[in-house]
């Protein structure tokens, strides 16, 4: 075996708005604890993060205080922007149709 170092790829995860929002929801202690712990792992470099414009659109609909808090959390991590095109919308519709995840916003 050669002396070359192995390249370890980080797991890439997509964060939806609720994963970020739960950090500011003390009325949901288990979700808040999970989200805070996940963000610590992200800040430690354990994961590569993806966000989409949908996340920012939803955050922009929040109250100014909540919006500021959520954007502060996002600013603490590096992330890649995921573009939303027709292929992504089709995949999202299939995921919802198969009840993998549920959606309150079918128009996004």
Spell out the blueprint of helices and strands.
Blueprint: E1 11-14, H1 17-21, H2 29-43, E2 47-52, H3 53-60, H4 64-75, E3 79-82, H5 86-97
Parallel strand pairs: 1-2, 2-3
The number of E-state strands comes to: 3
- The coarse silhouette is globular
The chain-level structural class is alpha/beta
State the helix count: 5
Short characterization:
The protein is of the alpha/beta class and 108 residues long. 48% of the residues lie in helices and 13% in strands.
Describe the structure.
There is one protein chain. The protein has 108 residues and is an alpha/beta fold. The protein has one domain (11-97). The protein has helices at residues 17-21, 29-43, 53-60, 64-75, 86-97; strands at residues 11-14, 47-52, 79-82. A 3-stranded parallel β-sheet has the order 1-2-3. The model has no long low-confidence stretch (mean pLDDT 85).
Features:
alpha/beta, 3-stranded parallel beta sheet, 13% strand, globular
């Amino acid at each position: 075996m050669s002396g070359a170092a192995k390249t370890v790829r980080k797991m890439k995860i997509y964060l939806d708005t609720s994963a970020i929002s739960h950090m500011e929801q003390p009325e949901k202690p288990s979700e808040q604890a999970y989200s805070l712990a996940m963000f610590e792992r992200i800040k430690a470099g354990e994961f590569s993060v993806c966000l989409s414009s949908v996340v920012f659109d939803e955050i922009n609909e929040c109250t100014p205080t909540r919006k500021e808090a959520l954007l502060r959390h996002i600013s603490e991590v590096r992330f890649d922007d995921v573009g939303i095109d027709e292929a992504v919308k089709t995949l999202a519709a299939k995921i919802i149709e198969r009840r993998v995840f549920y959606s309150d916003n079918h128009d996004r």
